[in-house]
Amino acid sequence: MLTSASHAEAPNAWTVRRTTAPRPLGHALDDCFSLAPVRQLKAKEPLFAEGDTKSNIYRIESGAVLIYKILNDGFRQIVSFAFPGDYVGLEMSPLYTYDAQTIAPTRIRALPSVALWRRAREDAAIAGEIFETLSREISDARRHFLTIGRLSATGRIATFLIALAHRNERKSLDAVDIQLPVRRSDIADFLCLSVETVSRSLTELKTAHIISLRGWRQIKLIDRDALERLAAGETMLDQGCHLKRAA
Fold first, then answer.
1. Global pTM?
2. For 55, which of 33, 48, 77, 241 is 20 to 30 Å away at the CA?
3. Residue 144 lies in a domain
4. CB-based contact 122:130 (threshold 8 Å)
């Protein structure tokens, strides 16, 4: 089992190769991680636990990682998901502030945090990409907070699907036919809904011809405009055939 105790490297065990050649924004951070070895993890293996000393920063190569916190009442609150191309652990903190666990068989690259911060101080392109990544995470967190606070269940599902579509667009992937990378129970915990409500909302969107479902992982966005409107606060009427603007 991969845990922070078993996989942490000493600060000097991995050194990122220095380079003076300028690189375009968007590739410098990936170049750093391209030098790190790939590790294969099984489903439900932990990357680290909240409170562990931060030893590594991770890049997801394939699979998916669940980022969550266990609250005082024992409830699991999912904070976010990390998919291929995403980074985990970039926050400027000496300790990990949440738990991270694989959802499915997952390939990762682990880079010692001290090595990455050293390179960021030397390379403005790396520092800029770290800033851009963290800024996007803050914006996503704020958007998620508003989603949970004011939208209906169907609106929350619509927001989640639109977020996946936007992410696929950034990664030059298919933004219409989306392979759902997480279980419905994970979506439920992320959106503060029950699994039954998630399933019912997806069925409502399917009945309204806004999405189509193939199995439970393959979703096609048929009417993205309607999804955007639901994510903006409109509601469905007449068995989902029409939308009503929020008051």
1. 0.76
2. 77
3. no
4. no
Q: Do the domain assignments include residue 90?
A: yes
Report the distance separating Cα 54 and Cα 97, nearest Å: 9
User: Structure tokens of 8?
Assistant: 């942490």
Please name the residue that has the structure tokens 């991770």: 58
Residue 246 φ then ψ, to 5°: -70, 145
- Residue numbers of the domain that contains 199: 151-244
Residues 27 and 117 occupy one common structural domain: yes
Q: Which residues contact 11 (CB under 8 A, 6 or more apart)?
A: 112, 114, 115
Same domain (yes/no): 35, 118? yes
- Both tokens of 153, joined, read 């269940």
Amino acid at 141: A
Residue 132 domain-assigned (yes or no): no
